[in-house]
Design brief:
The chain has 11 helices and 6 strands. The radius of gyration is 58 Å and the shape is rod-shaped. A 6-stranded antiparallel sheet has the order 1-6-2-3-4-5, with helices on both faces. The chain has helices at residues 14-23, 30-49, 56-63, 77-85, 97-102, 145-157, 173-178, 192-267, 278-297, 321-324, 327-351; strands at residues 90-93, 111-116, 119-126, 129-132, 141-143, 161-166. The protein is an alpha+beta fold. Helix 2 (30-49) packs across helix 4 and helix 8 (192-267) crosses helix 11. A hairpin with an 8-residue loop joins strand 4 and strand 5 (141-143).
Length: 352
């Protein structure tokens, strides 16, 4: 439909748009139509003057505004009719008794001009198809042959005056092209006012949507920031807990070492300034563990003889404790003693 000439509404120049859409080109301008209107006004004035320039009717006629045009751009049917006479075209009222007696099928005509109040528009056949070339539409509207008669009848019901254009219209590119092909219209054009309102509504909806998206982006950023903060706090708490655990562990080791050193120092004689050999140190350690084992085996109140040796794990009295206890047993006993010392120290500090 790009080849179809279609002027859209500008101001109140619908008569100009109607004529140019009918002729399929920029044939008339407001200046040319104004010239035709002034010519018609002069012809009417001359007819009124025939009754006398001093008559009341003539003076009243001079005081009245033009009936063929106004400042808004409206032109009368007389202006349109005279403009078409230049091209040898004539207008006949569609619903007049003279035309209705001819019983002509509308699809056999070539074009119609429709008028309601001060609006004019053209319905024309291009090639083998009909088109509504109303300047208030965003583009040409395809009308099927079966719908044409119903469309014209609907316009009459709405109060339109319909005129049949008689005569040969000038050749145009759209008519030649559509003689060879038929077009299909997937979407009907909207009224310009509806399109503007729809565009405005879309802009408003777009603006509202942008606001919502901006708000959502802001809240999303806030949510992300809050999540990052919560993550940082959680990591901080974990680090603090780890530091507390490490501090507790260091404290327990320190207390254990202190408790072990105190216990050993109380039970093992000090050798101030004397260097002990590994063998002497081993014997002293065995003597310490022998004493601890004897204290665990003796019942309360029983005093063991200083020279009496406790029974070994094999039950043979007097055997060497160094031979009876392995290094692993001694290490296990040392660990047990260390843990008992730590527990006792914790209890003591807890009471304080």
């Amino acid at each position: 439909m790009e080849s179809i000439f279609h002027e859209k509404q500008e101001g109140s120049l619908c008569a100009q748009h109607c004529l140019n859409n009918l002729l399929q080109g920029e044939y008339f301008s407001p200046v040319e139509l104004s010239s035709i209107a002034h010519q018609l006004d002069e012809e009417e004035r001359m007819r009124m003057a025939e009754g006398g320039v001093t008559s009341e009717d003539y003076r009243t006629f001079l005081q009245q505004p033009s009936g063929n045009m106004d400042d808004s751009g409206f032109f009368s049917i007389q202006v349109i009719s005279n403009a078409l006479k230049v091209w040898g075209l004539e207008l006949i009222l569609f619903n007049s008794p003279e035309y209705q007696r001819l019983r002509i099928d509308p699809i056999n005509e070539r074009s119609f001009i429709c008028n309601y109040k001060e609006h004019w528009f053209t319905v024309r056949k291009l090639g083998k198809q009909w088109f509504n070339l109303n300047s208030l539409l965003t583009g040409p509207e395809l009308i099927s042959d079966t719908y044409l008669a119903l469309f014209l009848a609907q316009l009459q019901q709405e109060g339109y005056s319909i005129f049949v254009v008689k005569g040969d219209l000038p050749d145009c590119e759209a008519d030649q092209l559509l003689q060879m092909i038929r077009v299909q219209q997937m979407h009907r054009p909207k009224l310009i006012g509806e399109e503007l309102a729809q565009l405005k509504e879309q802009r408003v909806q777009k603006t509202d949507l942008e606001r919502v998206l901006e708000a959502n982006d802001g809240s999303a950023m806030l949510d992300e920031d809050e999540e990052d903060l919560q993550r940082a706090l959680a990591l901080s708490r974990q680090e603090i807990d780890m530091e507390d655990e490490e501090a507790d562990l260091r404290r327990a080791i320190q207390l254990s070492m202190q408790g072990s050193s105190r216990s050993i120092s109380q039970d093992i004689p000090q050798t101030s300034g004397t260097h002990l050999t590994s063998e002497e140190l081993r014997k002293r350690r065995e003597a310490y563990f022998e004493k601890q084992q004897q204290q665990q085996q003796d019942p309360p109140g029983h005093l063991s003889h200083p020279c009496e040796r406790p029974a070994t794990s094999s039950g043979a009295p007097g055997s060497d404790p160094g031979d009876a206890m392995s290094e692993e047993d001694m290490l296990q006993a040392a660990v047990t003693l260390s843990l008992e010392t730590v527990r006792n120290n914790f209890k003591t500090e807890g009471k304080k």
